[in-house]
Amino acid sequence: VILFDTEDIRRIGEIPAGLPSLVAPYIDTEMFVEMVIDALVLGTLGCIDTLLTAVIGDSVTRKEHDSDKELRGPGLANMISGLFGALPGAGATMGTV
Prior knowledge:
mainly alpha, 0% strand, transmembrane, membrane, SulP family inorganic anion transporter, transmembrane helix, SLC26A/SulP_dom
């Protein structure tokens, strides 16, 4: 990088190290019902995606998955990650295949 003219490159600053701090979620009482409905829809879609990925994994490995275990892992991870302000996730089909 020193060999090139880097004076006009923007710098973003220091990259934080360590775990993020625990965040208490802000819940607006007026939007609570709407948030619960949205959360249920997103949770359902995440479950469908995770189970679809498990079925695809079954066809690749010729083994049968345990649906309860497949849903417990991402569910617990999503609840904990929400406390740290992280984004929810689900089974990744491309990573499985």
